[in-house]
Known about the structure:
The structure holds two protein chains of two kinds.
Chain A: H1 2-30, E1 40-46, E2 49-52, E3 55-58, E4 61-68, H2 72-98, H3 109-121, H4 130-187, H5 194-211, E5 216-221, E6 224-229, E7 233-237, E8 240-241, E9 245-248, E10 254-257, H6 271-307, E11 321-322, H7 330-333, E12 335-336, H8 358-363, H9 375-415, H10 419-457
Antiparallel strand pairs in A: 1-4, 2-3, 5-6, 6-7, 7-8, 9-10, 11-12
Helix pairs in contact in A: 1-10, 2-5, 2-6, 2-9, 3-4, 4-5, 4-6, 6-9
Chain B: H1 8-31, H2 42-97, H3 103-124, E1 127-128, E2 131-132, E3 144-146, E4 154-156, E5 164-168, E6 171-174, H4 179-183, H5 190-203, H6 206-259, H7 263-287
Antiparallel strand pairs in B: 1-2, 3-4, 5-6
Amino acid sequence: MGGLNTALSIATDALNAQEVAISTADNNIANADTPGYSREVVNLSAAGTTTEGGVAVGDGVDVDGITSVRDQLVDLQIQGQTSAQTAANAQSAVLDTVQTYVSGSSATVGSDMSAFFTSLSALSSAPSNGADRETVISNAQDLVSAFQTTSQGLTSTQSGLDTQVSGDVSQINSLASQIASLNTQISSQPEDASGSGELEDQQSELEQQLSGLTSFSVTTTAQGDTISIGNDSPIVVGGQSYALSTGVGSNGLTQVVDSQGNTITSQISGGDLGGTITARDQQIPGFLSQLDTLANGFATAFNAAQSSGYDLDGNPGGALFTVPSTVAGSAASIALNTTNGDAIAVSSDGSVDGNGNLAALTAVQTTALPSGESPTDSYAALVDSIGNAASNASTQSTAIQSSLTQLTNLQSSVSGVSIDEESSNLIAYQQAYEAAAEVVSTINSLFSDTMDMMSTTGV
Amino acid sequence: MRVANSLVPDVLAGIQQSEASLQTALQEVSTGKRVNVPSDDPAAAAAMVQNTAESNNIDQYEANDNAALGAAQTADSALNSVVTLLTQAVSLGTEGANGTESESDRESLATEVQGILSSVVSDANTQYQGVAVFGGTSNASAAYVADSASSTGYAYQGDSGVNQVQVGDSLEVQTNIPGNQIFESPGASVLGSLSQLANALQSGSSTDIGTATSNISAALNYVSAQQGVYGNSISQLNSQETFLAQDQVTLSTQASNLVDVDTATAAEQLAQAEAQNSAVLAAAAKVLPTTLLDYLK
């Protein structure tokens, strides 16, 4: 009897095990498209032996647990590449906006400066012509507007990015607190339970999203994942998350502040936040500085050329442009000192129709400024800077895309659910279940036979 | 080893790439330009800034050249007329020095010479676009006005300034000679010698008439020499026009090489991109749907 009961319990174990296997395959198929889901595998092992009558007999099958199949190294690599790519994308988006200010053949600083100088040159053959002088003034006004518009475009793009920074910071905070609560849940689960695997999947998916916002370093401890950003500012330790906050810096732009009150804006790299900060705090200020240097240098050189000649009233030429004495902010505040065409100092000796000083005025276009390049070349260099930065960002994004695709394929080859595989597994488990059910049925009829045996013979 | 369970990421990446190529090809065909924003080719965009500035400058030099040419030609033809008048005056003077002339003959000669003087002054007052060409760098509308206090009867209104017109990056051409330099040069003064002759004919002294006549000859030679300056300027301006036109062609070829895309090539690239895109989409349609379950019925 003991033998039949043991056989029955072994068969029952088998039925259980196959049921678990079938529901695991079911779970896998159901979650085939869930982002971040790693396929689960049932760990079955033989249940050891018991000795009956001096003979060791196997004790059926044990379900050791259900594990999720994942490769943590690949996950980390994907996170790293994602950070790099989202950073490049963020920069690329900003730079595409910025480069509209230096594109096209009209209404740019370059085109307006060229128009200004050609209208000056026209005074060569008609120095006292009032209409021609008015044209010069009008072109000077256009040039001043172009400087101001370009400068304002850059600064408003900069401050527009503040919204992006704030948004990213609150997203990071939200993800951090979710990761922290998952840490608590995961560390309270027994190992190898199905729930633990899925919680880890969720956490991995959240960390993947976080990598799109900023790069971070993660270490696994007994209390779960410890995550820190920048130069070791922690945002998740065990079940506790530490929120970042935002403040306004001395330049009027949004800064990122860690939970201890340190400003960590410049330490953040990678991800959308890192890329946005790089564009806002390094690239755009660089372009602004080039523009300001050009505006200041050009205005100063032109005013100097004015002073070596005489205006239409016979007085020594005065300044045509006003710029601040410091280079910073020159492009935003450059203005015309006068709108009177008579002020243009074309004459070199005070005579009304003399054009002796015109050569000095037009030479400003091609003479090197203190910065080392002529105005035309300085502007060309600015176009080159902006174009290069934009082109590099988009090239980088494209280049990383192919390595990301490879890594993602690698990840899904390890962790991805293959419908084909699960379907053929289902068939195998189904057959095993049917076989175990047959065993139960057989044992049942053996019981009946045994009972029949006992009742016919009597005692 | 397992392979990726799904070809979807690869397929998506492939489709995105071929769509991007298609978009680029389309933009190049419709704008005719390979470089539409600086990031398309930063170095070319920067070079275009300089190319455009130079090209605009050349347009202006061409305009300046035309204006200078007009002024110089006007002045030159005025001086032609002056030379003719002075030649006439010389023959009148020679006639007058001849002792056979009677007083009334000499008086009518004097009147003729006065007439020549006022014609010369009228030529000296030639205008170009409302300003006297011989007025130096003043913008006087007439170089000479009648002035009874002056020994010649006329006073110079202009100044002694000389203008150079910029017709090239490093080429300036003189476009005017001040009136006082042409018509009142010491020792060869046109106005001086003419009024001197008129007076001498009135007075009747042969010696004076002779002196005045040779002064007029000297003035005539001097004016012809001065005309050379205008002739020189005119020929320089004409050559420069040709050079500027050539420069423009060079610059425009350079610009085209920098940013334009050859239409035939662009159209071909567009056709290729379209074909590739269709191929990728068709391949995607084939690989996506099948799993084992389709066959396990």
